[in-house]
Design goal:
The chain is an alpha+beta fold and 419 residues long. The protein has seven helices and 20 strands. The chain is globular and about 65 Å long.
Length: 419
């Protein structure tokens, strides 16, 4: 398929002020949800003259405490939830680690997360073809692992190329509604139940600011094949390519283009075109299953650090980093979080090209999952851990910057040192 505009900006060169030609590539349905619908107000994060990575914003936080797995402690829906999460295929393409509970044996993760598991008493609307049941969730302030189970009643058999079309909307405590960027895309494939032939698991990892304390409206709008999703996506890319041909000029800067994108409401138009595209596709299983799910507040407050350039919010599941600087004298190329066990989690692997490493002690790792959302207040990104990491485990936080002229000089600032 053709790349969309946000993939193009992954390779934007601010100096040359030009965009590469669109290239053909195979469809990756999980990546679509992370790329096409990103908000245009997000600044690209530069990878030292190599590529520009676009993330959205979100504010992060939450708390997990360790626990022990006891016999009989895990039962019923909770056991089903962790079984479904364990078999889910949710991870970033470049990540070395998975999200908590994903791709691991249940016993490795349940003890760490079970005290944060919840399963609100909600009921999905029903159809004659299938029913949907909530297995549960765990969440922090801005991330949520959600798992459901669909029981098919009309004999339809799902295959690995089929998935639900989900729409997610948050209703905040003040009544404000926010549509999540993962809405409207075929994402997590069906995972067949180990116990029953007509039962399938649906697992989603959602990232958005203000998740905790809000009400999540889930609307599952039919089952489609990946072939149908690719047909819709090709039309979206053609639409965005047409916008580029009409509005983008050679002397337009990145900021000017993103400002125009917002003024023309291309996000909204893309979203509408996507919904219309799926309406023209024949679903494997028609119907709509919806419910309103209350999301609990984390029990503890996160650790907050503010520098001249960035705001950091650290909690046990994720780190939120927001750019608060108006200065362009230097650009932020990444942050390293040194843990007391010797692990160093980095927000951008490009910084490893220029920092000294201690191979005897240091274990450099990427975060398990990186996503963002935008808000009226500020832009930033959420970096998700692969396991609960309490702020007390963080020994140092170091920011890295390059000069504006990109002469290769790296500036290093230790912004936090544990006592």
């Amino acid at each position: 398929m053709k790349r969309n505009f946000y993939d193009i900006f992954d390779h934007w060169n601010e100096d040359l002020q030009e965009l590469p030609d669109l290239r053909e590539q195979s469809i990756n349905s999980k990546a679509v949800a992370d790329r096409v619908m990103q908000q245009a107000g997000i600044r690209p994060v530069q990878k030292r003259r190599q590529s520009y990575r676009l993330f959205g914003i979100a504010a992060a936080a939450a708390v997990l405490a360790g626990g022990t797995l006891t016999a009989g402690a895990v039962s019923g829906k909770m056991e089903q939830f962790f079984s479904a999460v364990s078999g889910a295929e949710i991870r970033d393409a470049d990540a070395e680690e998975s999200l908590p509970g994903v791709g691991l044996e249940q016993s490795e993760e349940i003890g760490r997360i079970e005290s944060y598991y919840s399963c609100p008493d909600v009921t999905f609307t029903r159809t004659d073809t299938a029913t949907v049941e909530l297995l549960g969730l765990y969440n922090d302030h801005n991330t949520l692992m959600l798992s459901m189970q669909m029981t098919v009643q009309d004999g339809t058999v799902f295959t690995e190329d089929m998935a639900m079309l989900p729409y997610f909307t948050l209703t905040l405590e003040d009544g404000t509604e926010k549509k999540l960027s993962q809405s409207g895309f075929l994402s997590e494939p069906f995972r067949k139940s180990d116990t029953e032939e007509n039962v399938y698991n649906l697992t989603y990892y959602l990232v958005e600011s203000d998740i905790s304390g809000a009400t999540l409206n889930v609307d599952l709008a039919g089952v489609y094949t990946q072939e149908a999703a690719q047909a819709v996506n090709e039309k979206l890319c053609a639409l965005q390519e047409d916008w580029r041909a009409q509005y983008f000029t050679e002397d337009m800067t990145t900021s000017e283009w993103k400002q125009l994108w917002q003024e023309m409401e291309f996000d909204r138009l893309t979203e509408e075109a996507m919904a219309e595209g799926f309406a023209r596709q024949a679903p494997v299983l028609a119907g709509s299953w919806s419910a309103e799910i209350p999301i609990s507040e984390p029990a503890a407050e996160p650790m907050v650090i503010e520098t001249d350039h960035n705001l950091y919010v650290l909690d046990d599941l994720s780190v939120y980093i927001s750019d608060t600087s108006d200065s362009s004298a230097e650009y932020h190329c990444g942050t390293a979080f040194g843990l007391k066990d010797g692990t160093v989690l980095i927000t951008d692997s490009a910084i490893l090209q220029n920092i000294q490493t201690d191979e005897g002690r240091t274990q450099y790792q990427n975060f398990a999952y990186i996503r963002g959302v935008s808000s009226e207040e500020r832009n930033g990104s959420v970096y998700c851990y692969s396991r609960p990491v309490h702020p007390d485990e963080v020994e140092t936080i170091t920011e890295y910057y390059y000069d504006e002229n990109q002469n290769g000089k790296l500036h290093e600032y230790v912004i936090y040192q544990a006592e």
